[in-house]
Amino acid sequence: MSELAVRELPLFPLPDVVLFPQEVLPLHIFEPRYRMMLRTVMAEDRRFGVVRWDPQQQKMADVGCCAEILHCQNQEDDRSNIVTLGQQRFRVLNIVREAPFRVGLVSWIEDEVSDDHDALTALTDQVSQALRDVVELTGKLIGKPSSLPADLPDLPRELSFWIGSHLGGPVADHQQALLEITDTGERLRQEYELLDQTRRQLAARTVLKDTLTGSDPRRSSLEELDGE
After folding, report:
1. What does the pLDDT look like over 32-60, one tens digit per residue?
2. pTM for this structure?
3. Residues 188, 178: Cα–Cα separation, whole Å
4. For 136-151, what is each residue's pLDDT tens digit?
C-alpha cells in the first residue's frame, strides 16, 4: 500500500449510523473524549472517521466513512454542534490506540472502474425510474404530492450512495452492506431490487385504497342524495 493510501484517523463509533460519501451529518458533541477529539481534528485537517457501532453485536464495523467538518459551533459548556460531510470510505486495518479517543490505521477504498459503461448507464436509468415511482406512489398514498430533490445525483456511483443513505426504517445492516460494496453496478442492482419490491407493494396498496374509496357506502349515499 502506498503512503497516501494509509493513514491514522480518529474514529467516532455511532450506534446504527452509516455515513455515505457526499451526505451531510450533523452531530452534537458532548462526551469529554469526543470533545478532545474535536479539538484535535479542528487543529489538524478537520477530518475523522464515522463508523457504525452495532448495539446488538457490541461491535464496530470494519468499514466507515471519513467526515469533514464544515461548520463547528462551540457552546459555553464546552459542548459543540457540528455539521459534517461524508468523504472517502475507509477500512479499519487496526486500532492504534483507545484513549483518550479511538484512533485507527485505515486504508481508503474506492469502487472498481466498470468495463461496461453502457450497461451501467442503463441500470442507473432503471434505478432512477424506480425511485421516482416509489416517491410518486408514496405521495398518492399519503395524499400529499412528493418529489425528489432538484440536486439528485445522476452519476451511477453518487446516485447509489444517495439512495443508500436515504433508506427508510431500521436498515443499518442493509446500509452497512451497501457501504462496503466496491462495485457500483452491484450496489445499484441491490438497490433496484429493494426499490422495485417497494414499488410493487405501494402500487398494490394504491389500488386497494382506490377500490375502497370507490366502494365507500357513505360516498354512494351522498351521491344518491345529490342526484335526487
Report:
1. 999 999 999 999 999 999 999 999 999 99
2. 0.86
3. 9
4. 999 988 888 888 999 9
Question: Do the strands 6-15 and 47-54 form a parallel or antiparallel pair, or are they unpaired?
Answer: parallel
Question: Which amino acid, 133?
Answer: D
Beta bridge partners of 59: 54
- Which are the contacts of 10, defined by CB distance < 8 A and separation ≥ 6? 37, 40, 41, 48, 49, 101, 102, 103
Q: Are 48 and 11 in contact (CB under 8 A)?
A: yes
Q: What is the pLDDT of residue 143?
A: 86
| DSSP assignment of 159-175 | HHHHHHHT--SS-HHHH
Residue 185 to residue 192: CA distance in whole angstroms: 10
Residues 20 and 162: beta-carbon distance below 8 Å: yes
- The CA distances from residue 126 to 67, 74, 140, 169, 192, in Å, are 30, 45, 21, 23, 8
Beta bridge partners of 64: 90
